[in-house]
Amino acid sequence: MLGLLKLCFASKEASKIHIRTAKIEDAPHIAKVHVDSWRTTYAGIVPDAFLYENLTYESRTKSWEKQLQADETTILVAENKQGELIGFASGGRERSGKYKHVDGELYAIYLLQTYQGQKIGFALVEAMAQSLLKQEFSAMLVWVLEQNSAKYFYEKLGGKRVDSDRLIISGKSLLEIAYVWDNLKQLAHINRL
C-alpha cells in the first residue's frame, strides 16, 4: 500500500497536510468526515430525512470498518498538521464493468467543509491516481451528482463526461454524471511544482 506520502503543493494550506493509507482505527474519523461532508455538500440536494436519519456516524463507522478489513479498496486519509483527519478518498477497480477502457474508479472523496478550496482535494486525487497506477490500473472513473459543485473540480482536473444515470435517494430521483480520465499517469502528477 501507500504508506505516508508527502507531496509538494501550490497552496500553503495543502502543504501542511499528510496523506497516508487508512488504518482500521481511522474508521470513526472517516465516518465523521463522510457524514459531515454529506450534510454540508448535499443540503438542499439530498432529502434531509436521508442526511439526518439514515446517515449516521455509527452506521458509517461500521461500513468503513468492513471496508478497511476487506482490503479490496484503497482508502487514503488526509490529516492536518495537528493529526486531525480532515478528508479521505477511496478507490479501486471500476465496479460496473461497463466501460471497456476504464479499469479504475474513484469511489469517494470528501473533505470537511472548512478545508475545501485549499487544493487538498487535488492532493487526494493525485495520491489515489498514484496508488491505482501501482496496482496497474491505467484509467479512472468517478460518479458525481449533477447538482454537486464538485463536478467543476473534476472538470478542472481534466475529467471527461462520459455517461449519466439516475439515482434514487429517499424517494428523490437525482442525476449522476460519470467523468473519466484516460491517462492516470497525467493525473498522478497534477500537484507537482
Automatic annotation (TrEMBL):
The entry's keywords: Acyltransferase, Transferase
GO molecular function: acyltransferase activity
Pfam families: Acetyltransf_1
N-acetyltransferase domain residues: 17-186
EC number(s) recorded for this UniProt protein: 2.3.1.-
Matching InterPro entries: Acyl_CoA_acyltransferase, GNAT_dom
Protein's UniProt name: GNAT family N-acetyltransferase
Source organism of the structure: Paracerasibacillus soli
